[in-house]
Structure formats: C-alpha cells, structure tokens
Amino acid sequence: MTGVVWIHRYPGLATYRYRVDMPAQEVAKHNGFKVGINDGDGDIIVFSKPAPEDIELAKKFKAEGAKIVADLQDNHFVTNKEAIYRGMAEVADSLICATDVMRQIIGQETGKDAVVIGDPYELEEVAPHANGDDLLWFGQYVNFKDLVEVMPQMGSRKLRVCTGPPHVPGTIMWSMDNWKRAFELSNIALFPVREGSEYKSSNRLVNAIRQGVFGVCMQHPAYYEFRDLMWVGHFHTGLRWTEAFCDELNDRVKEAQDYVRERFSPQTIGKQWANYLTSL
C-alpha cells in the first residue's frame, strides 16, 4: 500500500479544499493508496502552497526515501515568496500545477516540466436562475481590488459582494453558507481580472455555473474554454449584453453545467491525481 501525505499549512484557504482535501478523499478510493493530510507516513509527500519551513522538511523526507511533489499554484516567482518556490522546485522530484499558463511559467523559471491537474468544483448543481439583474462578485479580500477597478462601469446596477475576512462595510462576510445564499439571490456573477493573474484557474467560474448563475468574465486564459457559453471579453459590453439577451442566459448556464459536470467533478480530478501519483 502506497502512502501519500499532503502538507498544507493554511486550512482556511480555498486552495486547501481544491488542492488537498478533495483530491485526498478521491485518491484514497484508487489503487490502494493510503492518504493523510499533515500527518501520517508517506512514500509520496505532496507540498501544497509551500511555506518556508517546508523546504528543509522536504529535504528530510527525501533523504528518508520519499518522493517529493511540489504543487505550485501561484506565480510566486515574482513575489517575496520567490525563494520558497525556487527552493521547493529544486528539491522536488516532480512538480504539479493547476493551469497550463502556470506550467509554462514553471518551465521558464525552473527549467522543469510540471503536470497540470485542474481544480474540482465543490458546490452542488442548482437549476439555472440567470434571468434577472442581480449581480454578484465574490472572492478573497486580496482580490477585492479587481472589483474596485471596474466599479465605475457598474452605473446604478444592483450588486451583491461576498468577501472577507476582513469585513468590508456593505458586503456579505464570506462563509460557505453565506456564499451559497449569495448565489441563490443572484443571477449573474462578475469576474473582472487584472494583469498578472493569468496563471489562475477557472474554479470560481465553475462553481458559479454549478450554482445556476451566468458569468460575465474579462479576458483570461482559464475562461477561454467557456467563451461559447459565458461572456468572455470587454466587461461593460458584457454587462450590456446580458441585459439585451437576458432570455438566453438560463439556456447558456444549462449548457455550461452539462459541460462542467464531469470535466471538473471531484471524481474526475481525483482520478487524475491518482493516475499521476501512480506514475511516480
């Protein structure tokens, strides 16, 4: 029986759910793997969102004969965490990431090739309810500035915001229940993006689709595969398009749900992880 242990020190983050908790649950169903999170004996150790102390820990596990995998999700090659990413990439036997853009960045920065496994959805499928004008933005507080940038284009449109912590006055504090309730009350989710975020995955849009709302997205590599079903392009034009073609939105959401149902399911993503870990 092969032991796989994920190391992730920030259980309150979405990356813990998408890159550790859900994959571990699914990998445990395949190929006789015995899995653990931040505990247990592992023949394979997966460092997800590595912290400074993980470099020495990875060296220790490697010296004991374990295979080391570094799951590098964000482009910290251009931040103050650069040394952590470079150190983990050097120690790791193999690298993994969530998008092809991040794979290319890893290749350019380290000279190593990474395997791409995307993020699974985590929310249940809800019947489309996109035929309306209640708009929603949700996300981590660090990305709140993406919304601020496009606020001048919003005009008098109704907008609901779910973010935090910390609490932003006039917004809904993020929790799983509040997030689902915000989707329930909304029709259209907004996905403004900023330069430098091209490496990110589509998990926010995928979960919005699962919850029955339409997505208005700015140009972003992770959203291109949805451009025949969601709006992907100029932000203000997208807002006006949803108003002009409101009667089409539910049908588009339904098609998008059909598309993501298997492609981004925890079972599909978990099987990809299991196949990858088996190959090591």
What does this structure look like?
This protein has 280 residues and is an alpha/beta fold. 39% of the residues lie in helices and 17% in strands. The protein is built from ten helices and twelve strands. The protein has helices at residues 14-27, 54-63, 82-91, 100-110, 144-150, 176-185, 203-210, 235-244, 249-263, 266-278; strands at residues 3-7, 34-37, 44-48, 67-71, 94-97, 114-116, 135-138, 159-163, 172-173, 188-191, 214-217, 231-232. The protein has a six-stranded parallel sheet with strand order 2-1-3-4-5-6, sandwiched between helices. Strands 9-8-7-10-11-12 form a six-stranded parallel sheet, with helices on both faces. β3, α2 and β4 (67-71) form a beta-alpha-beta unit. α1 packs across α10 (266-278) and α2 packs parallel to α3. The longest helix has 15 residues, at 249-263. The radius of gyration is 20 Å and the shape is globular. The relative contact order is 0.14. The model has no long low-confidence stretch (mean pLDDT 97).
| Count of β-strands | 12
Cα gyration radius (Å): 20 Å
Q: In one word, what is the shape?
A: globular
- Percent helix, as a range, is 25-40%
Uncertain runs are none
Q: What class would the helix/strand composition place it in? A: alpha/beta
Mean pLDDT: 97
**Main beta-sheet strand count, sense and barrel state:** 6 strands, parallel
Spatial order of strands in the largest sheet: 2-1-3-4-5-6
Instruction: State the order of secondary-structure elements, H for helix, E for strand.
Output: EHEEHEHEHEEHEEHEHEEHHH
